[in-house]
Amino acid sequence: MTAGGAPLLVAERLTRHFGALTAVNGVSLDIAPRERRAIIGPNGAGKTTLFNLITGSLAPSAGRILFDGKPITGLPPHVVARRGLSRSFQRTNLFPKLTVLENLRLAAAADGRGSYSLLGGIARLPGPLLRAREAAEAVGLTDRLQEQASRLSYGEQRQLEVGVALATSPKLLLLDEPTAGMSPEETLRMTRMLEGLPREVTLLIIEHDMDVVSSLADRVTVLHYGEVLSEGSFQEVKADPRVYEVYLGSG
Amino acid sequence: MIARLAAFLVLLAAAAAFPLFAGKYPVTLLQEILIWGVFAMSLDLLMGYAGMVSFGHSAFFGVGGYVAALALTAYPGTLSALALPPLAAGLAALVIGFFSIRVSGVYFIMLTLAFSQMFYAVAFQAAWLGAEDGIVGVPRASVVGINLAQPMSFHLYLVALVALGALFLWRVVRSPFGHVLQGIHENESRMQAVGYAVNRYKLLAFVIAGMLAGVAGALYTQLVGSITPDAFLWTTSGEALLMVIIGGTGTLGGAVLGAGAFILLQSLVSSYTERWMLILGLTFILLVLFAPGGIVGALRGRVGLRA
Predict the structure, then answer these.
(1) A139: which of A39, A153, A159, B253 fits an S-S bond (Cβ 3.0–4.6 Å)?
(2) Residue B76 belongs to a domain
């Protein structure tokens, strides 16, 4: 279905129940390497739950997930993250009292056994520091490295939120509404920033802002009541009458 | 940095030379402060850095104290004084930690408390541990070639060990591992999301803190020549907790200052009145209300230093 050989991420008939509610119902996804895929849908469509299933924060009730050809269903979040699958959060989820650099450095050092070093200094692990600076540059926070995260503006915190996920050097980056709560200018800046990310990083992004989706996504998946309603290019999805119905018909 | 090191060395020299100027009682007070300082610092690693408020830290103080008492009585020597107590305390911390770190917040407090009280119950009843009388008449052995029966030798040995413990912890909180602990304190779930096996780090911190608490317990046994089940009692944990809070959590140095303030106040007030607990309690309430950052927090505010 997708060009470029084996998909990077495969979700097969993922389902998750919360009591009587089925938040995600038989969702299947194929994400190709280097693809930029947007997931859209009304509130409560199961987008964030889908992310939680993929990243291991929630166990699926049914279905399975393959990443890079290997099953990752049921693995704990830190193991999933180390396989190269990193996420940002819809509600900013940082280390508020630590500096921007330290936020990024911690993320960049997560894979290394060097983090068990009891007596060495931070400077003796140059790799994470370097990757932290690269991530800072990618999200436009290079001149804020020594600022405490809690003192950043809201927009900058959102940038850092993406930066922390990026600093782990993921193969697949899952972004949960990176522009949530942002002003139009901040949204524009975030879009530019995401467009500027290296192509090797495959993107799966939940987004409400259609301008962001149209300029960023190669393909779009529409979720509705936990099921895939439509999938295709932005133009195809936009032309789908069922999508139109969901977004405008139900108001 | 240089200033801090210089201050540390000056304090160290002053502590080492203290018996030259002071009488027996003040020296014993200082020795107690130093031992409790190590104990409180080890708790501060958990509380102030990793964000794990343990109410069962007495378990490791007690294990260190009892193992030192048993070992020194049977085989006086370096191994019994320096190696076995922290190893045994570390092992106890590995077991208690394995279960306790699975929960957090108030459940972690309750579990650690329950484990330490189990140790108390065992020590209070086991005949081979001297039951409620504990183990008395523990000799001060010859350790690493130094005859500790000599009071000045013992004092220097104690000061040196406390200084080593402090330096070790000072390095640890600045190491990559220490930074991971602070990340866990700040936001445990995000640490997990970026790829940290959070529980492994917490367990390692718990074991390190336990081992140092064991060193403190062993030093205490060597100081007073005996150990009783009270070492395991929850009040031992509670006092260390108070010391950390009085001094300022997450500062290490504060833990030693807190130990000093606590022990001096206790000995001072109790020499005037039977109701010293009441006075002590009031002092703590005032301290927590008006200096929530502890002594170190207040000093930083006054002198204008930053963390």
Answers:
(1) A159
(2) yes
